[in-house]
Each structure stands twice: as C-alpha cells, then as structure tokens.
Design goal:
Number of helices: 9
CATH superfamily of the largest domain: Periplasmic binding protein-like II
CATH architecture of the largest domain: 3-Layer(aba) Sandwich
Helix content: 25-40%
Distance between the termini: 52 Å
Number of domains: 3
Order of helices and strands: HHHEEHEHEHEEEHEHEEEH
Oligomer: single chain
CATH topology of the largest domain: D-Maltodextrin-Binding Protein, domain 2
Largest sheet: 7 strands, mixed
Structural class: alpha/beta
Low-confidence stretches: 253-260, 315-325
Strand content: 15-25%
Radius of gyration: 23 Å
C-alpha cells in the first residue's frame, strides 16, 4: 500500500492552490527546497510523478490531480474525526474563532455571541474582522473555524474544502440627499437613478456590488466620489454630492447617518438588489459542537434581523453613524 503522508499531501494541495513553490513555502513557513524535498518524497512513496516542468515553473500532473481528489476526502474525514473528539466536550467548553466582514459583526456576530454567553458561558468565541473576499483564505489556512462572507465572493460552489450555509439576504437601500427630487418619489427604482452621480469605493467588494447592482438595473454608475467608510460616504450624500447604495444590515444596532445630516434612505422597488450573507466551515468540521453552536446562533441572529425588518421596515430617513462595509 502506498504511503499517504498527510503533511506532504497538504503541501501538494497548497501548491495546487497557490501555483508556485515559492508561494507554497511562504504560506507554510518552509523553504522552497524543503517543499521540493517533501513533494519528491511523496512522489516516491506513491510511485507516481506529481510535478512536471512548465517553463520556469512546475505544474501538477494528471496523477497529482487524482491524488488530490482522494486527499480531499481524507482531509474531510480528519475534520470529522476532530469533530467527534470535540464531541466529548459536548460543546460546552473550548474556543471557536470566527472571521467576519465588518457590517456582519454588529448585525449577526455580536447578537450570536451575546446569546452564547448566556447559554454556553464556557464556549469562548473570538472574532477577527476580515474583508469578505479574504474570509475563505483565512478559513482554508486554519486561521478561523467559521467564516462569514458574501455569496458573491465564494469559491466555486463545488469546492470540496468548504461547507456553506446561507444566513441572510440583505436588501440594499439607496441614500439620497433629503432635498433630492426623487427623495419622495413613490415606487422608486434603481433604474431611476441612472443619471445620478454615485459614491462608492474605488475597489473591493462594495465597489463590485454597487456596479453589479446598477448594471443589472440597466446602467453603469458614474462614480463621482470614492470612499470606503460609511461615515464618509453618507456625509457626502448629505452634502448633496451624490447617491449611494446602503446595505440594510449596516444600519443594525441603531447606526445611521452623521448627526444633523439630511439623508433620505429609500427602499428600492421592483429592481431592489440584495447581497447574500453566508457562513462557511472547512468541510467535515460542521459537526464539531463548538462551530455548530455558533452557526445555530448566527442563524437565529439572521432570523431576528429578518423579523425586525418585517415588523418595522427600513427608515425613510436615518440619523446617526454607519460603520464601514
């Protein structure tokens, strides 16, 4: 029987993900020569050629891809084994590390942590803020056990490394200056704002979400100003410098627009965009009691968000301060 060395298989998987020996060595805190030696040893143990020269780089052979396909099942089974071992603690103690983008923290993570402090005080939840697009990298690297991201930033749906769970469809409302001619327009549509100057980030997820939403409504937004934080974005809206899309979840916890600012926050009709919030774990780890309890609490926090919207509805005008996306 071939020697399936788990450590060497992880090196091979990392090389497949990152593409170069140098990047693999940096990610795993090894030297490039150590990476090459480990992979040479794995190839000898398995009796197959795993790498072939491709210019100045190397690429995986067909045999290497076959090995990885089976290795993913091994990694998932090891996650399940870890989950069963943790089950002896019944999820009453231990630590769960959660990575989440900034607006998800007050809206979903904080309510979930508050609940768990009451129901499972021995379970420590530590939170690490991360960009939505980077959450899966952090999860894959073992930096967290559970990550909150957006569906738009998920890897391929069939990526074998992750199990994903939808949490919330977050509506995007539009912020206009209070005196804007469309501020009181009934049945406002996103397409009605095609000719307006827009305010959104110069890059990153919120830029992509804004552009994609507008393109779906039939136009490309004219970016008049660029900003990443909600305080800056809404201050410019209040000054009459443009309009902006605002995720409703960003208003969780009573946050709104800058003090004294006149901003009309309007619900879009017919073509209202939404961003989809998802939680993810490494595949096989969803059965671990700690992450399972945190995930259940996040689902309840998301349901409470949805119920609150149904009962109260979004405000037409919002005073206060909003956090960054």
């Amino acid at each position: 029987m071939a020697d399936w060395d788990i450590r060497k298989l992880r090196i091979l998987r990392t090389l497949h993900e990152l593409g170069t020996v140098t990047a693999t060595a940096e990610a795993l805190h090894l030297t490039p020569s150590a990476v090459s030696q480990q992979l040479t040893g794995l190839a000898k143990a398995l009796g197959v050629t795993l790498l072939e020269a491709h210019g100045r780089r190397v690429r995986l052979t067909g045999a290497a891809h076959l090995v990885l396909r089976h290795a993913e099942e091994v990694f998932a089974q090891l996650e399940r084994a870890d989950a069963e071992l943790l089950g002896h603690l019944r999820g009453e103690a231990g630590q769960v590390r959660v990575g989440a983008f900034s607006t998800a923290i007050p809206a979903l993570v904080v309510p979930a942590v508050r609940e768990l402090r009451r129901t499972h005080p021995g379970l420590a939840v530590t939170v690490r803020e991360t960009e939505a697009a980077a959450a899966y990298e952090l999860l894959a690297a073992g930096g967290v056990e559970l990550a909150l991201s957006l569906a738009a930033h998920a890897p391929a749906p069939r990526d074998p490394k992750f199990s994903r769970f939808p949490l919330l469809a977050d509506p995007l409302d539009v912020a206009l200056p209070a005196g804007h001619p469309l501020a009181a327009e009934p049945a406002l549509r996103l397409a009605d704002l095609a000719g307006e100057p827009w305010i959104f980030g110069s890059s990153g997820p919120w830029s992509q979400i804004t552009v994609a939403a507008c393109e779906s409504a039939g136009f490309v937004p004219e970016q008049a100003h660029a900003a990443a934080g909600w305080s800056a974005i809404l201050a410019m809206v209040a000054a009459g410098m443009g309009v902006a899309l605002v995720p409703r979840m960003a208003l969780a916890g009573g946050h709104g627009t800058p003090d004294g600012a006149g901003i009309a926050l309007r619900v879009l009709h017919a073509d209202q965009p939404r961003r989809h919030v998802v939680a993810a774990v490494r595949r096989g780890g969803e059965g671990a009691p700690g992450p399972a309890r945190v995930l259940a609490a996040l689902h309840r926090a998301a349901a409470a968000q949805a119920r609150g919207r149904t009962a109260a509805g979004p405000p037409r005008e919002a005073p206060g301060t909003v956090q960054s996306p």
